[in-house]
Structure formats: C-alpha cells, structure tokens
Amino acid sequence: MCIRDRVKVAYEMISIEDLYVNPENDRYINDSEDEISAMIDMFGVANGNPRIEMVNLAKDISENGLNPFEWPIVWYDEELKKYIVIEGNRRITCIKLMTQFKENEEILRSIPEAEKIYKLSYPEGAIECVVYEDLYEAQKVLAKIHQDINEGIGRKQWDAYAKQKANSKLGNGSKTYSIIQFLREYEGVSPELLECMAGSRWTSKLERVVSFRKFKEVYNIEFTSDFSMIYKDTVEQVYHMMEKLVMDLINLPATGNFRTKKDFDNYTDNLPAEFITQVPDENGKNVTENNTAEKIGEESCQVKDSNEVESQEQKNDTNSQEDGIQDDVQEEKEPEFDTPRKISNQHKSLRKALRLSKDYAEDMFGCLGEKGKEIIIELESINYIDYPNASAALCRSILEYVVKMWLLESKHPEQFKEGDLPGSYNSCINDLANRKVLNDKQHKMLRRCANKEYFIDFLNSCIHADSKICVQQTALIDGWKCIRILVELYVEGHQK
Questions:
Q1: Distance between CA atoms of residues 309 and 211, nearest Å
Q2: Beta-ladder partners of 128
Q3: Pair (164, 280) in one structural domain
Q4: DSSP E strand stretches across 335-413
Q5: Are residues 129 and 7 in the same domain?
Q6: DSSP H or E stretch at residue 364
Q7: Whether residue 357 is found in the same domain as residue 476
Q8: Are residues 95 and 185 in the same domain?
Q9: Domain boundary among 146, 176, 209
Q10: d(Cα 432, Cα 427) in Å, to the nearest integer?
Q11: Would you give per-residue pLDDT tens digits along the chain (496 residues)?
Q12: Are 280 and 409 members of one domain?
C-alpha cells in the first residue's frame, strides 16, 4: 500500500468558488467570522508588510500562474459543502479577489489595496489541489511546512548566508558575501560568530564599510572583478581582523551604524594594533604606525588630505578648469559620504537629467541634511537615459527620505513606517493637504501617481531585483515630477 492511499490523499481540480479561505488560519490571532473576513484579515497578519506583499503576490500569480511545486492543500467540510484551504490561503485569497470577489465593496472599504488586485486577471476555472480526507493529517503536513519540527523533518528556512550564496550562483556576488563566506569557511571559526552572523540586519553596514578607501588601508584587503578576496596577511590574521569587525558591526550601535566615512574613521583610529593589517606599507611602516603619526594633530591631517585631493585632481585632468568640466571618475579618490560634492556645471545643464523645476542655490539644500543634499546633487548630475537604474534608485531614495522628514515634523510622526513606503507616502500627502502645504491640484496629482499609476510599486520593482521590470523613461519622468513637488516645498518652506 502506498503512502498516498494510507493517508487518504487525492489530487483534484477544484473550482475557485468551491474553495473556502480558512477563517481559522494559524496566522490570525483571533479566528475570522467568515470567508470575506478571513480574506480581509490576510492583509493584516503580524509579520512583514502584508498589504504590499499580497499585491505583489497577486501580480506574480496573474503573470506567471501558481507555483506547480506548491499546490494548495484542502479539506472538504461536509457542513459548509466547501473545501477549506489548509495551506495556500494567501494564494487563494489573491485569486478570489481577481475572480469571484472582484470589485467587492466590503473588502475594498477595509483594504484599499484590493483595488490594485481587482485590476489584475486570472483565468476562471479550477485549480489543482491536494485533498486530504482527514483534517488532522492535513494539519500535520501544514506544521511540517511552516515549522522546523522533529529535528529537520519540516521545511528549513534559509539564513542570510544561504540567501547570499544563492544570489552568488546567479552571478550576483558581492564583497559582503565574500567576507561572510571567508568567515564561514575558516577552519577555526567560533560558534559565537556563526550564531551572530545568522541575522541579516548587519550586512548593510558591512557593505558601506567595504566601500570606504580606509577599509583597504586598515585591513589590506582588495577584491577582484568577481569579488574574490585578495589579502597579504596570513589567513589567521585576516580572520582575526574580520571577526572583530563583524562582531562590532553587530554589537556596537554607538558607532553610528558606520553610516559615514567619519564614523568608520573614528572606529579604526581606536582599533588595537592586533586588529589591523600586519603587512608593512611602501615605507616599511604598518598601518598602525601610520595612524599613530596621523593622529598627532587633526589640523595637519586635514591639510594633508586636502593637498592629496588637490594633487589628485590635477593629475586626473590638468585642463578641467579651462573646459569648465569636473572630473567624473576618480578611482583613487575616496567617496565623501559626509561632505557633498559640487554640482558639475556640465551635468547640471543636461536636459536629460532629473532636475528640480528651479535652479536652487546649493546652500538652500542645507535643510535636507547632508544625505538629502547629496542625493539631489547626484540626481541632477546623471543622465537618466544612460543610467536609468541608478536614476530610479535615487528617485526612490529621495522620495522615502523627504517623506520621512515631512512626517517626523508632523503631529503624527509614528505614521512613518520603515518598509511601508506607500503607506507612509499616503499619510504624508494627506497630512500636507490638511495643513494646506499642498493645494488640491497637487494633492490629487500626488495621490494619483502612487495609487492609480503605481509609481511607488514601479520604483520598488526596479530596486528589488524583479527581472521582469525594466525602467521606463516615461514613468520615471512623470513620477519625478511628483517627487520634486515634495522636495521643493520642503526646501522652500524650511529656509531661515
């Protein structure tokens, strides 16, 4: 007798209307009253950003269909005369909103995002399901899927390293992954380090750190074009240094999260010599000795850095001043994250750059802070035709940035929610409309851009590695016209 017969399971094509979204879903804190309530509650589960995620899931199902490796699991309820969905309630909810409950007003009143799903399509008909005769057996399978039970019998979730490893196989390697891989594969790696590295929130800090020139100076580590690590210290010393760095990235929030060059400089200036490269430089001194010498006086260090930059600029292009063109690429010059660059006159005058509607003086951007000022400078400096993805990324960055600044000074700063840009954006423009910062025409334009034309969804799709989404110039330009309204109103309204 096969297992399938023993547990009494079958595979059947079941019509969408005969499937019933489970009101007793384990995701819910309290059971739902009926199917419609269960679908509404699906948009409010505790973890993640369910409203955004449900819309994204519906779009994927509409475009690509259901995953053939994950058929819904159902159980027939004799009382309801329906198949209760045990596994796959999110997917079935999306399909029902595209078919059976399309344009349902009750759902729309509770979940405005449902309108986006209503506009999608899914072929009417039946869905192949796994049908369990015994509810208990179905629930056992559900537990195996969503919990790592019985010492590995259940589905094991990927940790941060596994996700990065998978990305590397797709050709999306990174310096961060190379360092993580080095530490994970080191023969004497400590269990404590492995446990701490299992989280993923610290990896963005490491990405910033490896972009600083001083990272190479302090640790003497470089990377090839395919992100392989190159180092001259012993393997033991490199592990010693990287273990210290990673543990501090995870455990030392007082460092300012290593957001800027200055944060990292302060950190490395106080590192014990044992955690710095032991390989001498060209003058026979190691980095520790050089750092000690540089710390004699802060002013002398600043003069030295200024001279180095000036000398480098002269080497790169002695004729730049005559031409009125600023060097675009200086490979050896360290990016100044805490000191914004000057806007190149050549780039700023480009008609194919995403510019503000007015030619603002640079000192007017002070209210945006150094980060906001830098983003605006970069946006006005690059050609969106040549660099569409970079332009889209900067658009999203400045949008989230200015929305946060507007909301933090409102009466309800808690309305800014990390990871929920659409929700924060709508709260922002509604608040500005109530305060008469936005007129009716501007408010309508901004609301339509996000909620009707899905500009924020478009930006998110461009940024979040959606292989099917390419940057559309028209959408980018139209959306930028809305973004700059928020930026310009903030700049003009915060002048001293």
A1: 18
A2: 13
A3: yes
A4: none
A5: yes
A6: none
A7: yes
A8: no
A9: 146
A10: 9
A11: 344 445 678 999 999 999 999 988 766 545 678 899 999 988 887 556 788 889 999 999 999 898 887 889 999 999 889 999 988 899 999 999 999 999 899 999 989 999 999 999 998 789 999 999 888 888 777 766 665 544 544 455 554 555 566 566 556 678 888 998 899 889 899 988 888 887 656 777 888 888 888 999 999 999 888 788 899 899 999 999 999 999 998 887 644 557 678 888 888 988 999 999 998 766 555 554 333 333 323 332 333 333 333 344 344 333 333 333 233 333 334 333 333 344 444 444 445 678 888 777 777 888 888 888 888 888 888 888 778 888 888 988 999 999 999 988 888 888 888 888 888 898 999 999 998 999 888 888 888 887 766 788 878 777 765 555 577 777 788 888 888 899 999 988 887 6
A12: no
229 DSSP β-pair partners: 223
Same domain, 369 and 453: yes
Kindly state whether residue 207 falls inside one of the protein's structural domains. yes
- Domain count along the chain: 3
230 backbone dihedrals φ, ψ, rounded to 5°: -125, 125
The amino acid at 453: E
Are 98 and 203 in the same domain? Answer: no
In a 3-state reduction of DSSP, which class is residue 85?
strand
pTM exceeding the 0.70 threshold for the entire prediction = no
In sequence order, what DSSP letters do the residues of 208-275 get, joined into one string? HHHHSHHHHHHH-EEE-TT--EEESS-HHHHHHHHHHHHHHHHH-GGGGGG-SHHHHHHHHHT--GGG
- According to DSSP, the residues that pair with 76 across neighbouring strands are 83
Structural domain of residue 291, as residue ranges?
A: 160-298
Q: Which of 93, 112, 146 is the last residue of a domain?
A: 146
Residues 309 and 118: their CA atoms lie apart, in Å, by: 57
Which residues 6+ apart lie within 8 Å of 245 measured at CB?
206, 209, 219, 275
Cα 456 to Cα 476: distance, rounded to the nearest angstrom: 10
In this structure, the answer to whether residues 377 and 424 fall within a common structural domain is yes
- In the block, which residue shows the tokens 């310096």? 175
Cα separation, 481 vs 32, whole angstroms: 43
